[in-house]
Amino acid sequence: MRMRFLAPVVLSAVLLAACGGGSDSKTTETEKKEASSEAPVDNSMVDTKAAEAAASKGAGLIEQKDCKTCHKVDTKLVGPGYKEVAQKYEATDANIEMLADKIISGGSGHWGEVAMTPHADLSKDDAKEMVKYILSLK
Ligand code: HEC
């Protein structure tokens, strides 16, 4: 009894899979083409690569510190989201300098009453790398 019920179901499932399988392989083919046409463009952008390397150094430093307990990239947590920070400040030397100092010595008043804790163990250079990464997240 059960088999009679199941047979049409199994059959249509097989047919659906066959049709679906056909269109699936088409999409993956076009996806592959798109991906491979982008690859050479990336390789030619040497300057972008250097900038990305610098940015990822800052990202790595942020990863090692306690920053993520208070900051996220997209949304406000205890402190502002990094994208908000990037929109507020231009990536000028003066701003990078000022924000690096703020990360090291902590402080409040730019975004609200809540203060950022000081990070006295951070070197100025590392703090600057972090700021460069944050300001690259526009
Ligand atoms: C205890 C929570 C906390 C931690 C940990 C923390 N922050 Fe913050 N951060 C804040 C708050 C709150 C503000 C907003 C301060 C203000 O209103 O001026 C802020 C502001 C900032 C700003 C913008 C400063 C400005 O003057 O506009 C930057 C950049 C920043 N944080 C980076 C970092 C980095 C990098 C780390 C890790 C080394 C870090 N924060 C760790 C809470 C934190």
UniProtKB/TrEMBL annotation:
A GO MF annotation of the entry reads: heme binding
Q: Where is the signal peptide?
A: 1-17
Keywords linked to the UniProt accession: Electron transport, Heme, Iron, Metal-binding, Signal, Transport
| PTM section of the record | Binds 1 heme c group covalently per subunit.
Chain residues that bind heme c: C67, H71, M116
Q: Residues in domain Cytochrome c?
A: 53-138
Residue ranges annotated as compositionally biased, kind Basic and acidic residues, are 26-36
Region spans: Disordered: 21-45
A Pfam family the protein falls into: Cytochrom_C
The membrane-spanning stretches of this chain are: none
User: What is the protein name given in its UniProt record?
Assistant: C-type cytochrome
